[in-house]
Write a structure and sequence with these properties.
- The structure holds 2 protein chains of 2 kinds.
- Chain A is mainly alpha-helical.
- Chain A has 9 helices and no strands.
- By secondary structure, chain B is α/β, with parallel strands linked by helices.
- In chain B, 42% of the residues lie in helices and 23% in strands.
- Chain B contains 9 helices and 10 strands.
- In chain B, the strands form 2 sheets. Chain B has a 6-stranded mixed beta sheet with strand order 6-7-8-3-9-10, with helices on both faces.
- In chain B, helix 4 packs across helix 5, helix 7 crosses helix 9 and helix 8 packs antiparallel against helix 9.
- Chain B starts with a strand and ends with a helix.
- In chain B, 49% of the residues are buried.
- The chains are: A mainly alpha, B alpha/beta.
- Chains A and B meet through helix 5 and helix 6 of A and helix 2 and helix 3 of B.
């Protein structure tokens, strides 16, 4: 009994590290989405901007996340004169990374909306921007929901790479604990289990949301039913 | 009667392809006209130009006496007055039937919610959609119901004219019958309409003057059975052949209707 009690502080220490994973994943996800929607809107109205956006996104998607982290922390931040903050650098790098992927997800789901519906909205006398907002955006966000939550779950897992910059996340703490207490595999598995639990909860929530938002009678709604 | 919509010598090119080559039409208030022509003769392009969804390269369009092709005219305001009903209904699939119809007056015209709702209710009643279906989504409606909601969506904008682009051609016979009945009813109530169709059922039911289009121009106009001879005289044998085929089919439908009356089938 006392042996378990000795272990509790270690587990609490690792558990507290999860906050960093959550902060990195959630803030990068939301910031990445905002920038992705904005750059998609800009791409639609300006072909040269679209080319630039596509090129940057391709480059970011092709680089290993660890390299992106290193480049942000040791190259971009000093070059911009920003303070050398590991957490901030981590959030920035992952924002860039998830922006590039979310851009692809949103682009594909927007392309899947019937072109005729956009034309119908325009023929009613709606402006192009409003038509995109009222007709294309709600439908493409619905279609993109599962892919976006996958992206969030990947981010949560990738956020453990923050330990390379010295962020004390769940995995980094598991490493420290294993140095102090031995049994390294146990602690690393424990950290993995914690991250898995959060990721599982997020995907459960995504399913719930998808079911709630599915348009009755649509193909999407029928697919959701298959998953139950 | 006052002319609601008039188009003169519309030209529209896509690259090197001249889709409209001097097309002209004219519609009076409360009038229904049909527009027929072979595939690729420019019917859909003409309708899209009349709605200013496409801008004609040259020629002019007058809506209630005002030239809307003049520079500085807001195309969005013109589109609000000239409604377009497509071959596919293209309802907004994430909105219920009612929300689809409400959308125009509420979000486009930006009327007060209560006022917009009144227009939506009237429009849905006018197309005869049963109240139980108002809260259903497009995927839950039949093809005929969907197309009637699309017509209601157009009506709720209180347009000066409705342009129909083959409104029955993607429907099964039951759906087509529903939509024909709706269009005929609206025409009877004085809704100014221009109907592009090859559906002899719709042609017979509306029994209106027909424009015949060929190679981007309106070649002749008249009753459908007069069109072959008129087109021949106008020197367009291809259009004449098309008109002959269409009027033959119309005749068969009329005969079948008469036969049905005699044999009470």
């Amino acid at each position: 009994m006392s042996y378990v009690q000795d272990l509790l502080p270690y587990i609490a220490l690792i558990f507290a590290g999860l906050q960093y994973n959550l902060v990195i994943a959630v803030s990068a996800f939301l910031a990445g989405m905002a920038v992705a929607v904005a750059s998609l809107a800009i791409s639609l109205s300006s072909p040269p901007a679209a080319k630039l956006v596509a090129a940057v996104s391709r480059a970011v998607r092709g680089v290993p996340p660890l390299v992106l982290l290193a480049a942000t922390y040791w190259l971009i931040f000093p070059a911009l004169g920003l303070p050398s903050d590991a957490l901030l650098a981590c959030i920035t790098a992952f924002t860039l990374r998830t922006w590039a992927f979310q851009l692809q997800i949103l682009r594909a789901s927007a392309a899947a909306v019937e072109k005729g519906q956009l034309e119908a909205a325009l023929s009613l006398g709606l402006g192009e921007r409003e038509a995109a907002f009222y007709v294309v955006l709600p439908q493409s966000l619905r279609a993109a929901l599962p892919a976006l939550f996958n992206e969030l779950s990947s981010l949560l897992k990738e956020s453990t790479l923050g330990l390379a910059l010295g962020v004390l996340d769940a995995l980094a703490r598991a490493r420290l604990v294993s140095i102090a207490a031995g049994y390294s595999l146990v602690w690393i598995l424990a950290a993995g289990l914690l991250v898995y639990a959060v990721s599982w909860a997020a995907l459960r929530f995504s399913r719930l949301l998808h079911r709630r938002l599915a348009v009755p009678g649509s193909l999407g709604a029928r697919v959701v039913e298959l998953w139950r | 009667m006052e002319v609601v919509l008039e188009a003169a010598d519309l030209v529209k090119e896509f690259g090197s392809l001249k889709v409209l080559d001097g097309a002209s039409i004219s519609l009076r208030k409360g009038e229904v006209k049909m527009l027929v022509g072979p595939n690729g003769s420019g019917k859909t392009t003409l309708l899209k130009c009349l709605n200013l969804l496409l801008r004609p390269d040259s020629g002019s369009i007058y809506l209630e006496g005002v030239e809307v092709t003049a520079p500085g005219v807001d195309a969005k305001l013109v589109r609000q007055r000239v409604a377009l009903v497509f071959q596919e209904s293209y309802l907004f699939s994430h909105m219920t039937a009612f929300e689809n119809v409400l959308f125009g007056p509420y979000k486009v015209k930006k009327l007060a919610r209560s006022e917009a709702e009144k227009l939506a209710v009237n429009a849905l009643e006018e197309v005869g959609l049963d109240r139980g279906s108002w809260t259903l989504y497009p995927a839950q409606l039949s093809g005929g119901q969907r197309q009637r909601v699309a017509i209601a969506r157009a009506l709720a904008m209180e347009p000066s004219v409705i342009l129909y682009d083959e409104p029955t051609s993607s429907l099964d016979p039951v759906g087509a019958e529903e939509v024909v009945a709706t269009i005929v009813e609206l025409a009877r109530n004085g809704v100014t309409s221009l109907v592009v169709t090859h559906d002899v059922g719709l042609l017979a039911a509306l029994d209106a003057e027909v424009y015949l289009m060929s190679k981007g121009r309106v070649v002749v106009r008249g009753r459908l059975e007069e069109l072959p001879a008129l087109a021949e005289k106008a020197g367009d044998p291809e259009a004449a052949r098309f008109a002959r085929a269409l009027s033959l089919r119309l005749e068969k439908v009329r005969k079948a209707v008469v036969a049905c009356r005699w044999t009470s089938c």
